[in-house]
Design brief:
The chain has 13 helices and 12 strands. It is α/β, with parallel strands linked by helices.
């Protein structure tokens, strides 16, 4: 699909030390159990790529990981990998996926910006590379309309985020600070009480009144709306052109160096899947839901699936400038010391694929390898 360019608000951040043990998790909604996908058939005469028996792919059971969900359901990854088997694992949180990448349990994965930043900084820039984009949007502040009638009413309320330091947690803390409210990032206490709550249990917490709202990704946001919640703010409205990175594609640097053809195959599958999603939105929505059901045992009902799907945009562009901004937000919140992000992106293979597919190349906003 055509790449979307975002204004570049900043360049690379200065080189400083990072907080080495901060767990910046991604939004999670699914199973952590590894899933072996043997149902996809390999085309006759297909050959192994780079001599590999398998390529291990990780993702979350989130609609914000639509590319991975749809690509797996339609067999697109397997088609591009030929006789090399696409093997999948699903995750609930960023730290576990980063750990899996570092241990070699997965080779390539779909993940949120905060855990990608943290994985990069904790390893001193040696563990991973962001090699592609995948999605923008799909994050909302949903509140109990009986308790919160306007944005100013959020002050003094209990608002859930998925996990300390995760992508949505950072976004909410930054937004609260922009309102002039003070919140201790670690404890979550202050002018607003931030309740770190797994996306799987947040709807029940909202239903029983233990939280007044939540800043969460899809489909959790639409689950809260189905429970009587109201969307008070769509995070997209806070960003230039209403676009911000919510999902990246990362790869182990070791795997990237040893098996660039395999990475190219996965990225080609991603680009072709995104193109198909945009050309066939209703079919793509059904395919994503089918894979969610296969992964979790339960499909999303239409009143949750339909609004959630509409708020997400798949994109090949990693929207690198917005990742830089999100890192700044984490620094301002006191969750991260300024990281050296120069080199976190390697878009060489993606741009090769995009060129071959007749699509515009994408930009690393000064944070790529050079």
């Amino acid at each position: 699909m055509p790449a979307t360019r975002v204004p570049l608000p900043r360049r690379a951040l200065p080189v400083l030390a990072v907080l080495p043990l901060l767990a910046l998790a991604a939004c999670g909604y699914g199973s952590e159990a590894a899933k072996d996908d043997s149902a996809q058939k390999v085309a006759a005469g297909a050959k192994k790529i780079d001599g590999l028996d398998t390529v291990k792919i990780g993702y979350f059971g989130n609609l914000t990981h639509a590319t991975a969900l749809v690509g797996r359901d339609r067999g697109t990854f397997q088609k591009e990998l030929g006789a090399t088997k696409a093997q999948y694992a699903t995750f609930n949180a960023g730290p576990s996926e980063i750990e899996a990448l570092n241990s070699g349990s997965i080779d390539i994965g779909w993940i949120g910006p905060s855990p990608a930043i943290n994985g990069w900084t904790k390893s001193g820039g040696k563990s991973l590379k962001i090699v592609g984009g995948s999605a923008s949007g799909g994050v909302k502040l949903v509140v109990n309309p009986k308790k919160v009638k306007s944005l100013k009413d959020v002050k003094g309320k209990k608002i859930a985020t998925p996990q300390l330091g995760n992508t949505q947690d950072v976004a909410f803390l930054n937004w609260a600070a922009e309102q002039g409210w003070k919140v201790d990032a670690q404890s979550g206490k202050g002018d607003v009480t931030v309740v770190r709550s797994d996306n799987k249990v947040t709807p029940d917490a909202f239903k029983n009144g233990s939280i007044d709202g939540a800043w969460v990704p899809e489909p959790t946001a639409s689950k809260l709306v189905a429970e009587g919640g109201k969307v008070l703010l769509d995070e997209s409205d806070l960003w230039p052109d209403k676009k911000f990175v919510i999902t990246n594609i990362i790869v182990s640097q070791k795997f990237l160096k040893a098996h660039p053809k395999a990475v190219e195959a996965v990225l080609r599958a991603s680009v072709r899947t995104n193109k198909w999603i945009n050309a066939h939105p209703d079919e793509a929505k059904a395919a994503a839901n089918k894979q969610l059901e296969a992964d979790s045992g339960k499909a999303l009902p239409a009143d949750i699936l339909d609004p959630a799907w509409k708020s997400i945009q798949v994109t090949d562009d990693p929207l690198a400038a917005t990742l830089n901004t999100e890192a700044d937000h984490a620094v301002k919140a006191g969750l991260l010391e300024k990281p050296a992000l120069k080199g976190i992106y390697d878009l060489t293979i993606l741009n090769k694929v995009l060129g071959a597919e007749g699509e515009p190349k994408v930009d690393a906003a000064g944070l790529g390898t050079s």
